[in-house]
Automatic annotation (TrEMBL):
Originating organism: Cylindrobasidium torrendii FP15055 ss-10
Binding of NAD(+), residues: 23-42, 109-112, 229-231, 255-257, 273
Residues binding substrate, per UniProt: 67, 70
Positions bound to Zn(2+): 149, 152, 191, 194
UniProt domain Deacetylase sirtuin-type: residue ranges: 1-283
Catalytic activity, EC: 2.3.1.-
Subcellular location: Mitochondrion
UniProt catalytic activity: N(6)-succinyl-L-lysyl-[protein] + NAD(+) + H2O = 2''-O-succinyl-ADP-D-ribose + nicotinamide + L-lysyl-[protein]; N(6)-malonyl-L-lysyl-[protein] + NAD(+) + H2O = 2''-O-malonyl-ADP-D-ribose + nicotinamide + L-lysyl-[protein]; N(6)-glutaryl-L-lysyl-[protein] + NAD(+) + H2O = 2''-O-glutaryl-ADP-D-ribose + nicotinamide + L-lysyl-[protein]
PROSITE patterns: SIRTUIN
Binding note for cofactor: Binds 1 zinc ion per subunit.
Protein name (database record): NAD-dependent protein deacylase
Superkingdom in the source lineage: Eukaryota
InterPro entries with a match to the protein in the record: DHS-like_NAD/FAD-binding_dom, NAD-dep_sirtuin_deacylases, Sirtuin, Sirtuin_cat_small_dom_sf, Sirtuin_class_III, Ssirtuin_cat_dom
Enzyme class, UniProt record, top EC level: transferase
Length: 283
């Protein structure tokens, strides 16, 4: 395991199929809570326990308040330097000088949409960029602004703030430490197609992530995996780096702190990824 930037850039330059697996730490500098470790509470609840079908069935009001809070946080957030570095590296015209004739895809576990927003901004600055043979980004856990019907499964992308009148202002309860609001199911977000109750259109624990066939193919051919801002505890994403390594590829981890399994990486760069990643990628 090495922290040698020059050695990493040598590997980067010779790599042909590069993958990045990103987690919540990528967006931490943008003000998006990670909801893990010491910061894992939302109001008085374990935040990860609310991201399940069981929790939604038991208390859709509470779960919608949690996701309304997350939606409002994402609406206020701006991409940081790590998002920008990955967005720039996604473009073949920029990457050509750093990793000639290579492919690159970002697989993100984040649902905040900041990577997609940043990529769109970068592409506008490079209107002649050719369309890549594979996706720029795969959002494997979905998007916070997708709203999915619990009955007809209609999905709609909406950045409405609030998503419904009854949720307006509930995001401020965390600051006042007041009791959770008990919102009637009838007043929660409804489907524009059939009028039924909707749910956040993200992947919850126990549900199958999106884009799995495409991701599996990318992992199989990858010769360099960048692990950015993730504790590597949520599967299947947590296993991608080890799979790349088992097939002969290299792994570089960019995290604020040590995490399980990073001692097996080829490169480990500790510190804020908005600082370490742009430097490592030469951007």
């Amino acid at each position: 395991m090495s922290a040698d930037m020059d050695a990493f850039q040598g590997v980067l330059k010779s790599s042909k199929n590069i993958l990045c697996v990103a987690g919540a730490g990528l967006s931490a500098a943008s003000g998006i809570p990670t909801f893990r470790g010491a910061g894992g509470l939302w109001r008085k609840h374990n935040a990860t326990s609310l991201a399940t079908p069981k929790a939604f069935k038991a208390n859709p009001s509470l779960v919608w308040q949690f996701y309304h809070y997350r939606r409002e946080s994402a609406l206020k957030a701006e991409p940081n330097a790590a998002h920008r570095a990955l967005a720039q590296f996604s473009l073949a015209s920029i990457r050509q000088n750093l990793a000639p004739d290579s492919t690159f895809t970002l697989i993100t576990q984040n649902v905040d949409g900041l990577s997609a927003v940043c990529l769109e901004e970068v592409l506008k600055q490079h209107p002649d960029e050719p369309q890549p043979a594979q996706p720029y980004i795969l959002e494997m856990h979905g998007r916070i602004f997708d709203v999915k019907c619990t009955k007809c499964e209609h999905v709609e992308f909406s950045k409405a703030s609030p998503i419904c009148d009854a949720l307006g202002g509930t995001e401020k309860l965390i600051d006042r430490q007041t009791a959770d609001s008990d919102i009637s199911v009838a007043d929660l977000p409804r489907c524009a197609n059939c009028g039924s109750l909707t749910r956040p259109g993200v992947v919850w624990f126990g549900e199958r992530p999106f884009h799995m066939p495409s991701i599996d193919k990318l992992v199989e051919k990858s010769d360099l995996c960048l692990v950015v801002g993730t504790s590597s505890t949520v599967y299947p994403a947590a296993g991608y780096a080890a799979e790349v390594q088992s097939l002969g590829g290299k792994v570089a981890v960019f995290n604020l702190d040590r995490s399980d399994g990073d001692e097996d990486s080829d490169f480990l760069f500790l510190g804020p990824c908005e600082e370490t990643l742009p430097r490592a990628l030469g951007l």
